[in-house]
Amino acid sequence: SLLATQVVARISDGLGVEIELRKLFEKPTVAGVAEAVAEAQEQKRKAEDGEAGGAGEAGEKIPGLVRVSREQSLPLSSSQQRLWFLNQLDSGTRAYNLSAVLRLRGDLRIDILGAAIEEIIRRHEVLRTSFPAIDGTPYQSISPTPYSPLELVDLSSLQSQEKEAHVRDLVFEEAQRSFDLANGPLLRAALYKLQEAEYVLCFIVHHIIFDGWSVPILFREMTVLYEAFLHGKPSPLPDLPLQFADFAVWERASLQGKALEHHMDYWRAQLEGCSQRLGLPTDFQRPPVQSFRGDTHRIQLSPELSQSLKNLGRNQGATMYMTLLALIDIWLSHYSKQRDILVGTPVANRSQIQTEAMIGFFVNTLVLRNEIEPEARFIDLLGQVRTNVLEGQAHQAVPFETLVDALHIERDPSRNPLFQMMFNMENASDGKLEIPGVVEMEPMRSGFLQSRFDLYLVAIPRVTGLELVCNYSADLFRSSTIETMMGSLSELIRLALETPQARISDLMAQMMQFEQRQLVDRQKEKAQRQVAGLRGVQRRAVSGTTN
C-alpha cells in the first residue's frame, strides 16, 4: 500500500490528475493505470468546463502545498496537536519518545559525524522546532540556527564483558528522559565508544517531530553527508523547498468545508454503532490510567509459510497486509468473543510527493472495522477486508484526532479511543548500512519497552521469513499469555493457508483444539519438571545420609 500511495502521488505530481488508490488494485498493470489516468483526465476536463458530473467526489479543489511565511504564527498539525495535548496532561511522560540505535564499526571520524548530524538539523526545520503556547494555544517556534546534539561517552576503559550491558543501560536511561516541548531541543544524540573502531550511536527524539518514515531519511542523509564531508566536499543534498511547517499549514487549510465533510461522511457511516472496546481477557485488572509499561514477544514464520501467505493474497487481489489483517480479525474475535472488530493501522500520510524527503510527524491512524461472520469463508472475509482497507486509504486525510472529536468518543485515560489493537507492516532491510570503505552500520534494539495500546502487532518481512512482533501492555498481560496467543495466531495462519475456503467457525474450532493440546503439553512438562525436582531432592537427601 505504501508503494501504491507513492505511485498515486507521482501521477498527481507529473500528470496533474488524482486517481483513487483502489484503481491500482483493480487495474494492476501499466495499461490499466494508463486507462485510469485517462479517465481522471477526462473527469478533470469536464470539471474545468463546468459539465455535470465533473466536479469530483469532494466537490471542491484542495489547495496545493506551498511555502508559507515564517513571520506568521505557525500552527501545529492535527497529529502534533494531539501529542501536545497529551503532554500537557503528563509533562513527564516518555510514552512518545522514539529511539534509533546503530552499532558503528570502522575508522570513525567523530568530528565529521557531528558535522553531518548538525547539517541534517539545519536542513530540516522540524528538528529545530519547539512548541511554546500563548494563552493555551501552541505554535511552532523554529530556531534559526542548528545545534550540535552529539554527546561522546567513552566506555573503552571498561572490561569487555561489562561494555555491552553498560551501553544498553545507558541507551535505556537516555530513552527514558523526557523532553520539554515548550523549549526543546527535541532530539538528542549520544555516541558511546566501546573500543577503537567500535561505537554505538543513539538517537532519542520526540514523536511530535518524527515518525517511522523519518528513520531511513535520517540514516540515508547521515551516510551521504559523512562521506562528502570526509573527502572535504560540500553537502551534495539540495535544500528542501518545503518544510514540515508548510505541510501543517496546508493540512489545516485543506481539511475544511466540503473536502472534510466528504471524508467525514464515510467515517460516520463506517463506524456507526461500532464496538469501541475490545474485550480481550486480561491477566490483570486494567489500571485507571495507562502507564505505557510494555514488553515484546516475537515469532518467526518459515520462508515457505511466508511465501504461501503472500501467494494467497495475490491470488485474491490482496496484499500480504490485507491477508494478515483478515487473520488477525479472526484471532481477536476468537479471544474477545466479539464479531465487530476494530483495528488501528498507521498510514504514512505523505500523499504529496514533496513530503517524501521530509523528516517530521506525518503519520496518521486509520480505524479498520470488519464484521466476523462465523459461517462465512475465510476468503470472503479477506474480500471484505480488502474493500475496507482500500476505502479507508481513500479517506485517510481525516486526522485520527479530528475523527475522535467528530464522533464524540468519550475519552478514557485507561485505553486508546476507538481501538486497542494496532497492526502495522514494516518494510525492513536485512542488509547493513555502510559508508563504503569507512564505516559499517548495523541497527540494534534500544531495550526501551513501552506500549501505547493493549496490543501492537508488527509484521516484518525478512529473508528468513515473516517476523511477527507483538508489543503488549505489561499492565494487562503476562508474557506466558502472549506467548500462547501468538502460538495460536501462527497456527491460524497455517490452517487458513491449508484451507482458505474453510468456514471461520471451523478455523476457530481448530484453534481451540490447538490451544487445548498446548495446555495439555504444558501441564505434562510441568509435571515432569516437578517429578525431576523431587527425585533430585531425594538423591541429595540419600547422599547426605550416606555421608
Question: How would you sum up this structure, described in words?
Answer:
This protein is α+β, with helices and mostly antiparallel strands and 547 residues long. The chain has helices spanning 2-15, 21-26, 30-49, 78-89, 110-123, 160-176, 214-230, 244-254, 257-271, 303-315, 320-336, 378-394, 400-406, 479-498, 504-546, and strands at residues 97-106, 129-130, 133-134, 137-138, 141-142, 150-154, 187-195, 198-206, 294-300, 340-347, 364-371, 421-425, 433-435, 439-444, 455-462, 465-473. A six-stranded mixed beta sheet has the order 6-7-8-1-14-13, with helices on both faces. Strands 9-16-15-12 form a four-stranded mixed beta sheet, with helices on one face. A two-stranded antiparallel ribbon has the order 2-5. Helix 11 packs across helix 12 and helix 14 (479-498) packs across helix 15. It starts with a helix and ends with a helix. The relative contact order is 0.13.
Structure annotation, total helices: 15
Which sheet architecture does the biggest sheet show?
6 strands, mixed
Broad shape: globular
Report low-confidence residues grouped into runs of 5 or more. 52-59
- What order do the strands of the largest sheet run in, or round the barrel if closed? 6-7-8-1-14-13
Helix content: 40-55%
Q: How far is the N terminus from the C terminus?
A: 72 Å
Mean pLDDT: 89
Structural class: alpha+beta
Strand content: 15-25%
Radius of gyration (Å): 26 Å
State the total count of DSSP E strands: 16
